[in-house]
Amino acid sequence: MERLEWCSRCLRARLVTAAVRRRLPWLLLGLVFLGSALKDGELVPDTPMQNKRNVLNVYFVKVAWAWTFWLLLPFIGITSYLFARSKFIYGPTKSILAALRRLSALLVGTAVWYVCTELFVYIENLTGTCSTSSELSETHQLYTTKQDCHRNNGIWNGFDISGHCFLLSYCTLMIVEEMTVLEGLSIDRNSRLRVVINSLFVSLCFLTMIWVFMFLCTTVYFHDFSQKLLGALVGLAAWYATYRVWYLKPFSPGLPLPNTPLSSKKYSYSR
User: Fold this and answer.
1) For residues 54 and 48, is the Cβ–Cβ distance under 8 A?
2) Cβ burial, residue 80 (10 Å; 0-12/13-18/19+)
């Protein structure tokens, strides 16, 4: 448990800060430009990460929202409940309602993920054409979707907005925002809840590192520059519209730390 506490303390000092929250969107945009420059300049070495079947892509990125959702679910629920009890001196019922309100941010995130990915698919289908090896003998055949094209061993050529750049940027920014609740949370070092929260926090930190690393790999190995930039901009726009605009309003899931969109308070997780 001491190692977990030490690891959590080190990660908090580096990730749960206002500076990280300010600079992270610019870092992600910078990675798009850097990765695209390396790719276009053919300066990228051959590594297992250029294979779409690599372990991190198959078991993490392909289900990125599921990983983000199921780790944030207990983290937001527990920390929001404790925050409401300690800071607002709410009773159990009001604290549960406060936690449920904050958990609705995950429903918002799910809606953002679903709408944007469906929109990307629609745009790719709308702008694409199918090339097949049997084009000369089957010129009458017309494929209107990427799925139909692939089903007939064709190659679909459309504007493929990078879903990876969108989702990884959005998940990364969302996790970092939600972890700021620790700035205003006080829990006894000997509490079992502290162990649970530390475990969830460390897991979320490592997940964030995976998302940033895979974001970089996406910019280096896949998609055109415009596709990656647009995907990242959609992710940043979704984060900004929620955590910087909507969540400041009364009728919203609210911020992890109320009325402090860029908190600079000293971390107060222990007492």
Assistant:
1) yes
2) buried
Model confidence pLDDT, tens digit, residues 222-263: 989 999 999 999 999 999 999 999 999 988 999 998 755 554
Residue 159 lies in a domain: yes
Q: Which amino acid is at 201?
A: F
For residue 78, what are the CA distances in angstroms to 69, 126, 193, 213? 14, 44, 8, 28
Residue 73 lies in a domain: yes
> Hey, is 156 helix, strand or coil?
strand
Annotated catalytic residues are: 164, 223
Rounded-to-integer distance, Cα 142 and Cα 130, Å:
8
Give the pLDDT confidence of 82-118 residue by residue, as tens digits.
888 877 666 788 888 989 999 999 999 999 999 999 9
Instruction: Output the DSSP codes for 171-194.
Output: HHHHHHHHGGGGGG--B-TT-HHH
Tell me: the pLDDT tens digits for 37-74? 999 888 888 888 888 899 999 999 999 999 999 999 99
Q: Tell me the angle at which helices 92-127 and 163-178 cross, rounded to the nearest 10 degrees.
A: 170
Q: Please state the length of the chain.
A: 271
Q: Is residue 254 part of a domain?
A: no
How many structural domains is the chain composed of?
1
Strand partners, 155: 131
- Looking from the CA of 214 toward its CB, the CA atoms found within 13 Å total 30
Looking at residue 110, the DSSP 8-state letter turns out to be H
Asked, for residue 271, whether it belongs to a domain, the answer is no
